[in-house]
C-alpha cells in the first residue's frame, strides 16, 4: 500500500514544482528587482510561508481560478504589473489548494497588505487623511487649552510651526501595522491550534486600521504639545511608543479574545487524493495562460502610444512631453497637465513627483480661488522656494476629491487630467489661477 502511494505523491510534488516554476518564470519576465524593493513587500514575502494554514481537504478553487483569469486579462489589456502581481498570487494559492489543501483566509489578507496596489491606495488617500488628522488633532489641542492654529497640514503653536507630513501619517506605518496584525494572528494560530474565519479576520484588521489612526493622532498631539521638531531623536521615539501603546498592545489582547471566542480547530493533515480528470484541463491550460500574461507585459512603456489632452490658453504655447504630459511655461509660471488613462490608475500626484525631484512640501492645504477648490502648497529645495497648486478636471468638472473623479470616470464620463500650476511666488500663483478660472481660461479637452 505504501509502495503504491509514495510514487504517486512524488510525481505530484514534481508536477507542483514544475507549475510553481512556470509562475516564477512569468514573474521574472514581468517584474524587475526594484519592484520588490519596498519594505512591505519584503516583510510580506517573509511572512507568507508562516501564514499558510491548511484548514480543509484539497480542492479546485474556482474562485481563485476566476480571479487569476480576470487579473491576467487585465494585465494584458492595460499592461500593468499590479494586475500581474494578483495574477501570480491567486495562481500560487490555487496550486496550493489543488495539491496540498484548503487555505485559511489569513493568507489573502497578507497578499492584499503586501501588494503594490495597497501601497498605491495608501499613497492616494494618505494626503486627505493627513489633513483630516491635522484638523482633528487641532480640535483636541484647543480643547486642552492650547492656542493652536491649523492650516492644512501645518499646525502653529505659539509661533512654532509643525508639519504633519508622511512621518506622522506614514505610509509604511499603516502598512506595517497591518502586517504586524498578520504576524500576531500567525502567532495566535500557532500557539492555540485554532484559526479564524473570514468575518472575524475582517473585523480584526478593521480594528488595526482604526488603532493606527488613533496612534497617529496621539503622536501628532505629543509632538505639537511638547514642540518636538523632526530632527530631534525624540520625534521617532514618540512614534514608536505610540505604535506599541495604541496598536501592538491592544492587538495582542484583541487577537487572544477573538481566538477564544470565534476560533475553530485547524486541519494540518489531509488525506492525499488523486487529481481528477476534469482538473487536468486547468493544470494544462492555466499555467501557460499565466506565463503568457507575464511575457506580454511590455518592459518599456512607449510614450508614442500615450494620449495627450488638448490644452489651450491664449498667449501660451503647449508642449507635449512623454507619458501623456503637456507642459506650458513662462519665466514665472509652469503648468503641467497629465492625462489619467483609467479610473483605477495612479495620477502621479505632485506630492510624489516634486519630492522625486528633490523638493520638500511645506504648508499644504485646501483653498478656494475664483470658486474652485484646489490643493496649494510650498516647495523648498536648497533654499529656493516655489509655490504650487493642483486639481483634477475633465474640461468641465474641477475637483480635488479622489472618489469624485474616479467614480465619474467609472460611470463613463470624460477622462480626467491632473493640472499642476507652479509659480516663483505666491502672489503670481494666485493671480495666474484667478485668470485661468475667469478671463483667460485654461481649456482642456480629452
Number of domains: 2
Query: What portion of the residues fall into strands of 2 or more residues?
Result: 15-25%
Tell how many strands the DSSP assignment holds.
17
**Distance between the amino and carboxyl termini:** 70 Å
Mean pLDDT: 85
Shape: flat
What is the succession of H and E elements? HHEHHEHHEEEHEHHEHEEEEHEEEEHEHE
What class, by secondary structure content?
Answer: alpha+beta
Number of helical regions: 13
User: Mind summarizing the main beta sheet?
Assistant: 8 strands, antiparallel
Q: How would you sum up this structure, described in words?
A:
The chain contains 13 helices and 17 strands. The N terminus is likely disordered. The longest helix has 30 residues. Strands 9, 10, 11, 12, 13, 14, 15 and 16 form an 8-stranded antiparallel β-sheet that branches. A 3-stranded antiparallel β-sheet has the order 3-4-5, covered by helices on one side. Strands 1-2 form a two-stranded antiparallel sheet. The protein has 2 domains: 289 residues, no CATH class; 143 residues. The protein is α+β, with helices and mostly antiparallel strands.
Topology (SSEs and partners):
Elements: H1 2-30, H2 39-47, E1 54-56, H3 62-78, H4 81-99, E2 102-103, H5 106-114, H6 116-143, E3 148-151, E4 154-157, E5 160-163, H7 171-192, E6 194-195, H8 198-225, H9 233-262, E7 264-265, H10 279-296, E8 310-312, E9 319-320, E10 325-329, E11 333-339, H11 350-356, E12 360-369, E13 372-381, E14 384-393, E15 398-399, H12 402-410, E16 417-423, H13 426-437, E17 443-445
Antiparallel strand pairs: 1-2, 3-4, 4-5, 6-7, 8-17, 9-10, 10-11, 11-16, 12-13, 13-14, 14-15, 14-16
Amino acid at each position: 500500500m505504501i509502495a503504491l502511494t509514495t510514487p504517486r505523491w512524488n510525481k505530484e510534488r514534481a508536477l507542483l514544482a514544475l507549475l510553481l516554476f512556470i509562475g516564477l518564470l512569468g514573474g521574472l519576465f514581468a517584474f524587475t528587482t526594484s519592484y520588490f524593493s519596498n519594505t512591505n513587500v519584503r516583510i510580506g514575502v517573509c511572512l507568507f510561508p508562516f501564514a499558510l494554514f491548511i484548514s480543509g481537504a484539497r480542492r479546485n478553487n474556482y474562485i481563485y481560478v476566476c480571479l487569476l483569469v480576470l487579473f491576467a486579462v487585465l494585465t494584458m489589456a492595460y499592461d500593468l504589473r499590479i494586475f500581474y502581481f494578483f495574477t501570480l498570487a491567486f495562481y500560487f494559492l490555487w496550486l496550493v489548494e489543488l495539491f496540498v489543501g484548503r487555505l485559511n483566509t489569513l493568507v489573502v489578507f497578507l497578499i492584499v497588505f503586501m501588494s503594490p496596489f495597497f501601497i498605491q491606495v495608501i499613497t492616494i488617500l494618505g494626503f486627505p487623511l493627513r489633513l483630516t488628522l491635522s484638523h482633528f488633532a487641532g480640535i483636541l489641542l484647543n480643547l486642552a487649552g492650547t492656542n493652536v492654529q491649523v492650516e492644512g497640514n501645518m499646525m502653529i503653536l505659539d509661533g512654532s510651526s509643525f508639519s504633519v507630513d508622511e512621518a506622522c501619517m506614514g505610509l509604511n506605518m499603516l502598512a506595517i501595522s497591518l502586517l504586524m496584525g498578520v504576524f500576531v494572528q500567525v502567532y495566535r494560530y500557532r500557539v492555540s491550534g485554532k484559526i479564524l474565519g473570514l468575518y472575524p479576520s475582517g473585523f480584526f484588521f478593521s480594528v488595526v486600521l482604526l488603532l493606527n489612526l488613533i496612534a497617529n493622532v496621539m503622536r501628532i498631539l505629543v509632538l505639537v504639545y511638547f514642540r518636538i521638531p523632526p530632527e530631534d531623536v525624540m520625534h521617532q521615539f514618540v512614534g514608536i511608543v505610540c505604535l506599541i501603546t495604541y496598536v501592538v498592545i491592544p492587538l495582542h489582547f484583541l487577537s487572544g479574545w477573538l481566538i477564544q471566542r470565534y476560533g475553530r480547530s485547524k486541519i494540518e493533515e489531509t488525506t492525499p487524493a488523486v487529481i481528477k480528470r476534469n482538473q487536468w484541463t486547468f493544470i494544462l491550460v492555466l499555467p501557460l495562460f499565466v506565463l503568457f500574461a507575464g511575457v506580454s507585459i511590455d518592459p518599456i512603456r512607449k510614450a508614442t502610444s500615450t494620449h495627450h489632452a488638448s490644452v489651450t490658453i491664449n498667449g501660451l504655447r503647449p508642449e507635449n512631453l512623454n507619458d501623456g504630459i503637456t507642459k506650458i511655461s513662462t519665466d514665472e509660471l509652469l503648468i503641467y497637465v497629465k492625462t489619467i488613462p483609467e479610473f483605477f490608475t495612479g495620477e502621479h500626484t505632485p506630492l510624489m513627483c516634486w519630492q522625486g525631484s528633490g523638493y520638500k512640501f511645506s504648508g499644504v492645504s485646501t483653498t478656494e480661488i475664483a470658486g474652485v477648490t484646489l490643493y496649494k502648497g510650498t516647495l523648498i529645495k536648497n533654499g529656493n522656494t516655489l509655490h504650487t497648486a493642483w486639481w483634477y478636471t475633465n474640461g468641465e468638472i474641477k475637483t480635488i476629491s479622489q472618489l469624485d473623479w474616479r467614480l465619474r470616470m467609472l460611470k463613463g464620463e470624460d477622462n480626467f487630467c491632473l493640472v499642476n500650476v507652479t509659480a516663483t511666488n505666491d502672489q503670481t500663483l494666485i493671480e495666474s489661477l484667478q485668470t485661468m478660472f475667469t478671463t483667460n481660461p485654461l481649456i482642456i479637452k480629452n
